[in-house]
Each structure stands twice: as structure tokens, then as C-alpha cells.
Amino acid sequence: MVGRSRAPLDFAAFCLLYRARWAQYARLRVGDRVRGDRAVQSAVAELAVNWADILRGPNPTAGAWRILGRAVTRAPGPMPVPARDTLHDALPGPQADAVLLHYRLGLTLTATADLMGTDPPEVAAHLVAAERSLPTAMVKTLERDPEASHGPS
């Protein structure tokens, strides 16, 4: 019985730690608060169903990030605002995610790495690769999203 009661506490703590940032990321990706929040709810539901397997995997945070990415990609509704998700059209997913988290949401390399389930040098490599791949004009427009500073609300 102890094992059964502990898993939900672990899951709740994990979600409490990451959910607010997941919501900021999802809202930014889809360009809509309601659709972003629904994508996070979908990801949390999938994560709950697969929690035991996620914990047995090599990196639970990376596993959760993959689930969130899939949920955001399939978020129902109209297409995202073009200026919001052109990065995912132009770059591989991990590079685009690193750019959104670091530049648009203003997370540090360490916080970005923690959220994505990787390490800071890998995030730095994604950022450098993205900066080399993107047109100079687009790199110059990367800045913190003004709405991100208002918290996850």
C-alpha cells in the first residue's frame, strides 16, 4: 500500500515543480492561453497514465518534456499565430524549444536545461546552432515575451 500512495505524491510534486513553466511554454507555442492550458492538461493526463514507466526511464524530466511537446503540437484549434511558432518551422524541435525558453521566456541556461531534461552545455549548443541557422534579422528580434513576466497565472 505504501508504494501505491507514494506514486501520486511523487507525481503531484513533479507537476507542481514544472507545471507553471510548462503552461508558459505551451501558451507561447500555440499563441493562446486556453489552448496552451488544454495542451498542458493533456500532457499531465498522459504523464499520469505513464508515470511508473516515466520514473523507470533514464530521465523523467526529459520524458515529460517529450510528452508536453507532443501535446502542444497536437493542440486543437486554429493554427498558431505565425510569429509565435515560426521557430518550430525553421529549426529542429530542441533548438526551437531552447530559443523559446531562453530568449522568449527569459529562463537561464540552467533553468532551460532543467525544464527540458538536459544539461546547460546541451542547451548552449542548441542556442548556438539556432543562432547560426536563423536569419540575422530573426536572431535580432529574439527577446523576452512581455506576457511571460506576468507569471504563469
**Average pLDDT, to the nearest integer?**
85
Distance between the termini: 36 Å
SSE order in H/E notation?
Answer: HHHHHHHHH
Q: Helical content, roughly?
A: over 70%
Low-pLDDT segments: 1-7, 148-153
Helical/strand content category: mainly alpha
What is the general shape? Answer: globular
Major beta sheet summary: none
Gyration radius (Cα, Å) is 16 Å
Q: How large a portion of the residues is in β-strands, by DSSP E? A: under 5%
Total count of strands: 0
The DSSP helix count reads 9
Detailed description of the structure:
- The chain has helices at residues 2-30, 33-49, 51-56, 60-73, 82-90, 93-104, 109-116, 120-133, 136-141.
- The longest helix has 29 residues, at 2-30.
- It starts with a helix and ends in a 12-residue tail after the last helix.
- It has 9 helices and no strands.
- The radius of gyration is 16 Å and the shape is globular.
- By secondary structure, it is mostly helical.
Write the layout of secondary structure elements.
Elements: H1 2-30, H2 33-49, H3 51-56, H4 60-73, H5 82-90, H6 93-104, H7 109-116, H8 120-133, H9 136-141
Short overview:
With 153 residues, the chain is mainly alpha-helical. The protein contains nine helices and no strands.
Features:
153 residues, mainly alpha
